[in-house]
Write a structure and sequence with these properties.
Four Helix Bundle (Hemerythrin (Met), subunit A); alpha/beta; Rossmann fold; binds adenosine monophosphate; binds zinc ion; 5-stranded parallel beta sheet; 4-stranded antiparallel beta sheet
Length: 463
C-alpha cells in the first residue's frame, strides 16, 4: 500500500519512495542537553517514533540517526549569545560534560517511559568535532565559506537559491533586521559554521582558525552525512527548526556536495498549554515526570497526543490527560475481553478493519483517524481473540502496551508518596496521631488525598 507524507520541501503530500527499496534512512534533530525535555519536546519525539513504527508496519527496516547537541547551540538562533550548554553549566555550577550527561540520561529515561524506540544511531556532537572540521574546510575549499575575526561564516549569496525550505522573505526581513553583531559578515543571513573561542571559553578545540568551537547547524550536516550518506530519505524535527536550522543544513549540504541532504522533510507542530505557549516564566513547563507524579501511566500522554494530527497544534490540559487515562483503561479492558471471547468472526471483517487502519496511518500518519478505527475495533460487538490479535498488531504502531494489564492505584503512585504513606502507617501503628496528621497534610499538599477505610488506606489523586 502506498505511503503518503507531507513534505515541507515541496509543500505537498507526496507518495513516499525510498532511495533503497528495503531500508529507510532517517535523520532526526535531537535534544540540546542543557535542560529537562518538556512534554512539548516529547510530542515531537512521539511523532518521530510513530513515523518509525509506521514504516516498520509497511515492512521497511530502518537506519535512523539522532544527534545529541552538547556544544554550539547558542542562546539565540542568530549566532548570538552564550552557548546553551555553558550557560546551564554556569547556572548549575557543574561542568558542561556533567550537564550533558545528566540531561542526556533524563532524556533517554523519558523516551523509555513513553515507549519511544531508540534510533539505530545516537551521535553526540562533541564526538564528531573532526568530521565537522573537515566539513567546514571543504566548504571553504568550495568557496562557500569565509573567515572574519570572530568566526567562519557560510556565504548564502553563493547558493542558487536561499531559502528553499521556509517562506522566509529575505528582502522583507532585511529592512527590519537588527544590526549584525559581526560587522564583517557579508550578508545578513550568513550563519556561523565555526566560532572562534574567547579566551576563557570552556569548550574549544584546535582548528586551522585557532581554538574554536562548532556552530549548531554543522553538526547535523556532518553526522547526517557520516551515518546516512550524501542523501537519505527523511529528515525530521520540530516546526521551529524550519527557517533556521534546517534551512542552513540544506545550505551546507548543497555547498559541500551539491545535494539537498534529504528527499522528504517532515515537521511536527507545537504542543500548547491551556491554549498558549509553554514557558518557564509562565511556570507551565510540564515534564513527563509531572505526568507520572500525578499518578498517570506516562503512555496516557502518548495516547493523548494522538488526538491531533502531528502537523496541527495540540492543546494540553489535565482534563485531556484524565480523559486519555480513562481511554487507555478502556482499550486495555476491551483487549482482555476480546482475548477471552469465543465468538466467530469472519476474516473479511478483520481484513476491513485492518485495511482502514493501514490507510489512515499511511495517509501522512493520520493518528486521529487511525484511533477512530481502533475504537471501532475494540467496540466490535462479537468478542474474539482474532480481534485481540488485530489490536496487538495496531499497537505495534500505537506503542501503548495495550496487552499489558492496567497499573493499579498503588503501583502508579510516585516513590516519594509511597514512602510518605508508609511513614504515616508507622506513625498510626505507634499511635502518633499528630505525626500521622502532619503526614496526611504533607501528602495532601503534594496532590494526593488519603482515606482510611475498613480495607486499608486508599490514596486518590486530587484533581
Ligand atoms: P527547546 O528545548 O525548546 O530548544 O526545544 C527543542 C526542540 O523540541 C525544538 O526544536 C522543537 O522542535 C521541540 N519543541 C520545543 N517545544 C515544543 C512544543 N511546545 N511542542 C512541540 N515541540 C516542541
Ligand atoms: Zn539538527
Amino acid at each position: 500500500m502506498d505511503i503518503y507524507f507531507y513534505n515541507t520541501l515541496t509543500r505537498k503530500k507526496e507518495i513516499f519512495e525510498p532511495i533503497d527499496k528495503k531500508e529507510v534512512r532517517i535523520y532526526s534533530c535531537g535534544p540540546t542537553v542543557y535542560k529537562n525535555a518538556s512534554i512539548g519536546n516529547m510530542r515531537t519525539n512521539i511523532f518521530q517514533d510513530v513515523l518509525r513504527r509506521v514504516l516498520k508496519y509497511n515492512g521497511y527496516s530502518l537506519k535512523h540517526a539522532m544527534n545529541i547537541t552538547d556544544v554550539g547551540h547558542l542562546v539565540s538562533d542568530g549566532d548570538e549569545g552564550e552557548d546553551k550548554m555553558l550557560k546551564s553549566a554556569r547556572e548549575e555550577k557543574k561542568s558542561p560534560m556533567e550537564i550533558a550527561q545528566y540531561y542526556t540520561e533524563l532524556f533517554f529515561k523519558d523516551l523509555k517511559a513513553l515507549n519511544i524506540e531508540m534510533p539505530e544511531i545516537i551521535c553526540k556532537a562533541t564526538d564528531h568535532i573532526q568530521e565537522m572540521l573537515e566539513y567546514v574546510e571543504k566548504l571553504m575549499e568550495n568557496g562557500y565559506a569565509y573567515e572574519t575575526s570572530t568566526a567562519i561564516y557560510f556565504d548564502v549569496s553563493k547558493l542558487d537559491k536561499y531559502p528553499i525550505l521556509s517562506n522566509l522573505n529575505l528582502e522583507d526581513q532585511k529592512a527590519g533586521a537588527r544590526i549584525d553583531v559581526d560587522r564583517e559578515k557579508r550578508n545578513h543571513y550568513d550563519f556561523a559554521l565555526w566560532i572562534k573561542a574567547p579566551e576563557n571559553h570552556l569548550m574549544k578545540w584546535d582548528s586551522p582558525w585557532g581554538l574554536s568551537y562548532p556552530g549548531w547547524h554543522i553538526e547535523c550536516s556532518a553526522m547526517g552525512q557520516k551515518y546516512l550518506g550524501d542523501q537519505f530519505d527523511i529528515h525530521t524535527g520540530g516546526i521551529d527548526l524550519v527557517p533556521t536550522h534546517h534551512e542552513n543544513e540544506i545550505a551546507q549540504s548543497k555547498g559541500k556536495c551539491g545535494k539537498i541532504p534529504a528527499r522528504y522533510w517532515m515537521h511536527g507542530e507545537y504542543l500548547l498549554i491551556d491554549g498558549g505557549k509553554m514557558s518557564k516564566s509562565l511556570g507551565n513547563v510540564y515534564l513527563v515526570k509531572d505526568i507520572i507524579e500525578k499518578g498517570y501511566n506516562p503512555l496516557v500522554y502518548r495516547l493523548f497526543s494522538y488526538s491531533s494530527h502531528y502537523r496541527n497544534k495540540l492543546n494540553f490540559t489535565w482534563e485531556g490527560i484524565e480523559a486519555a487515562s480513562k481511554s487507555l483503561e478502556r482499550l486495555k479492558n476491551a483487549y482482555q475481553m476480546h482475548l477471552q471471547g469465543s465468538d466467530e468472526i469472519e476474516d473479511k471483517a478483520i481484513g476491513e478493519l485492518e485495511n482502514k487502519f493501514h490507510i489512515a496511518i499511511n495517509d501522512d500518519l493520520n493518528m486521529p483517524v487511525a484511533m477512530g478505527v481502533v475504537w471501532d475495533t475494540v467496540r466490535y460487538e462479537k468478542k474474539s481473540p482474532k480481534i485481540a490479535k488485530l489490536i496487538e498488531k495496531f499497537d505495534t504502531v500505537l506503542g501503548l502496551k495495550i496487552a499489558e494489564p492496567m497499573d493499579r492505584n498503588e503501583q502508579q503512585l510516585p516513590q516519594e508518596i509511597l514512602e510518605l504513606v508508609e511513614q504515616r502507617k508507622q506513625a498510626r501503628e505507634n499511635k502518633d496521631w499528630n505525626k500521622s496528621d502532619e503526614l496526611r497534610n504533607l501528602i495532601q499538599s503534594k496532590g494526593y488525598e488519603i482515606k482510611d477505610t475498613k480495607n486499608g488506606t486508599e490514596i486518590k489523586i486530587i484533581k
